[in-house]
Write a structure and sequence with these properties.
mainly alpha; 7% strand
């Protein structure tokens, strides 16, 4: 079996994370009470990374995908840091 270089892992992961970011903008709004929506397979590229390179690499890719919107204050990541948001179960 041929060994996969770290450069190839990083390149494929970057391309798949870019695809995941693009897919996260394709949303299907629904009739939910709090205005939620469903994204079109936005986590599928992260699952592919985890399947190809292992759980550790997949979890790291998920953190990389989650981190920029959360740090920059994107509106879809705002619920992660709210103290009384319904998503966190607060009152």
């Amino acid at each position: 079996m041929k060994s996969i270089s770290k450069v190839q892992k990083l390149t494929e992961s970057a391309i798949l994370l870019a695809a995941a970011t693009a897919l996260s903008f394709v949303q299907f709004p629904g009739p939910w009470v709090n205005g939620g929506s469903i994204t079109l397979c936005s986590m599928l590229p992260v699952c592919i990374i985890g399947y190809r390179y292992g759980v550790k690499w997949g979890v790291l890719s998920g953190v990389v995908l989650w981190n920029p919107p959360a740090v920059c204050g994107h509106e879809r990541a705002a619920w992660r840091f709210s103290c009384n948001g319904a998503a966190l179960g607060g009152v």
